[in-house]
Backbone:
């Protein structure tokens, strides 16, 4: 089902069964704005094994979206290396990066980024449209994706006729249409209420169980509690990288407490995200 295209020999932790899906080595990103340099990422190093379900946390401005955009090949690092399997994507051409975005990566954004004029099933087709892959069979495939996220009976609804949670489900279906290896989500529950947030997190959990490697940016401890592992950024540096020992219990009644006793969570990290200035517009996000 997956589409790794990665060398099988790249294993970690000595048990030989887990491949490294992503490797960040001293990853840096500077932005140049009106003569000023913003050091958004200052050298971040970690690995993501295949099948991981990782949240990236940190206060506003700590570099979370920058990191996700680099991993999603939407932008290029200023320094350091970024490997996808054995491939160093920091050295790739624009065409190669487009190819990776189109075949290996599904994106989900806080503001859903559905196209208002299109129906639900047409929205799911958008990535295929941009790749010239629309065909007689693709409509059926998109209907199956809608079914997978529980929206099989809403195919001809337009986004405005759907609830926020349904819109995010549609966006998740769209992200899956190319059977990507990675699902990358930037504050995917930032615009949703608590109950809908849980539903969406359960959906991500199911996708992860089905084999997708998921990297999710979030401000909220309650959201991160649903993931296997939490990395926290501060000022473009990694503050901690922690396995979530309670992973799984979040799917029952209890929630994991990820607040480090020695690292109190700042108010900025727990307040809900208000806006999503960093989410690209839909065609830009989905375009190869
Ligand atoms: P987060 O997602 O954690 O809120 P970002 O990755 O969006 O943080 O931003 C990290 C830093 O980089 C911030 O200081 C932000 O202002 C800056 N930044 C992000 N994108 C740009 C850009 N396109 N141009 C200039 N500065 C940027
Ligand atoms: Mg952000």
Residues:
């Amino acid at each position: 089902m997956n589409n790794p295209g990665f060398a099988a020999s790249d294993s970690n932790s000595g048990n030989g069964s887990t491949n490294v899906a992503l490797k960040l080595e001293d990853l840096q990103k500077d932005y140049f704005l009106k003569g000023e340099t913003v050091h958004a990422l200052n050298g971040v190093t970690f690995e993501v094994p295949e099948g991981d379900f990782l949240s990236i946390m940190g206060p506003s401005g700590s570099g979370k979206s920058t990191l996700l955009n680099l991993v999603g090949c939407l932008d290029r690092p200023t320094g350091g290396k970024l490997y996808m399997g054995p491939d160093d994507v920091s050295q790739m051409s624009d065409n190669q990066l487009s190819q990776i975005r189109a075949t290996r990566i599904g994106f989900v954004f806080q503001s859903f980024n559905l196209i208002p004029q299109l129906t639900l099933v047409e929205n799911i087709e958008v990535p295929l449209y941009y790749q010239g892959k629309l065909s007689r069979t693709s409509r059926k495939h998109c209907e199956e994706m809608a079914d997978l996220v529980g929206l099989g009976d809403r195919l001809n609804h337009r986004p405005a006729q759907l609830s926020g949670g349904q819109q995010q489900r549609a966006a998740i279906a769209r992200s899956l249409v190319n059977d990507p290896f990675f699902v990358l989500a930037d504050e995917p529950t930032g615009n949703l209420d608590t109950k809908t947030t849980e539903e969406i997190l359960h959906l991500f959990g199911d996708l992860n169980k089905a084999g997708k490697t998921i990297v999710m940016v979030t401000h909220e401890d309650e959201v991160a509690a649903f993931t296997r592992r939490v990395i926290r950024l501060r000022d473009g540096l990694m503050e901690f990288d922690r396995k979530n020992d309670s992973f799984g219990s979040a799917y029952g009644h209890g929630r994991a407490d990820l607040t480090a006793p020695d690292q109190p969570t700042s108010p900025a990290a727990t307040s809900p995200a208000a806006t999503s200035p960093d989410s690209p517009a839909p065609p830009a996000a989905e375009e190869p």
